[in-house]
Amino acid sequence: YRQSGDPDAVDPAIREHIGGLEWLREGPAAPEPVTCEAEYRPVSTTLFLTNTCNLRCTYCYARSGNFRPVTMPMDIARSAVDLVLRNTLENKAPAYIGFHGGGEPTCAWDVLKGVVEYARGQCEDPKRVAFGMATNGVMSPEKATYIARHLNLVTLSFDGPPDIQNAQRPKVDGSESYDDVVAFIGTLREHKTPYVVRCTVTDLNVERLPELVDFFTETAPGAL
After folding, report:
1. Which of 42, 48, 58, 221 is nearest to 134 (CA)?
2. Which of 10, 55, 140, 220 is least enclosed by beta carbons within 10 angstroms?
């Protein structure tokens, strides 16, 4: 249709399904990019600490474990922290430091903890910097307690009831991860640490979405 302009080039059922073809017509020329004269001064940074992971999720986009383990050097992490903290002074805005990974951030524990302590040490006002992280929730009780005490927000990857969680998110050795995640949630709740849950939907659990909603809101430990 775009090439010929002939509506009959498209099956009538398809035309009806997508709401007609008029919206496919060439519109005006694309607008010119807006130029920005202000210098880029970020006040937040997300650090991908490592490609190492203690899980082997069946759908892992990063294919953790297939590559040589790499962990961010502390001097690079400090440079990122210095940049955003410097900009917060100029912009009079709070800084945000996030931990993510093509793996599990807590597998680079020394760097994670080092960044938190370094950033806090650079601020006269501890409230000037906030920390967040994405995690699979599988860690020692000591690490869980540290995160609950020192981080402002946690995004937890958790796929639902034991049969789904353990099938989609097994540990490296193939053992189950559900109980570890539930224990981590308990630590967060004990310390009143804000957290959100993200659930990955696959062909294994897509037909169980209503059940997953009920699980996370009613039957999960603590009623997430």
Report:
1. 48
2. 140
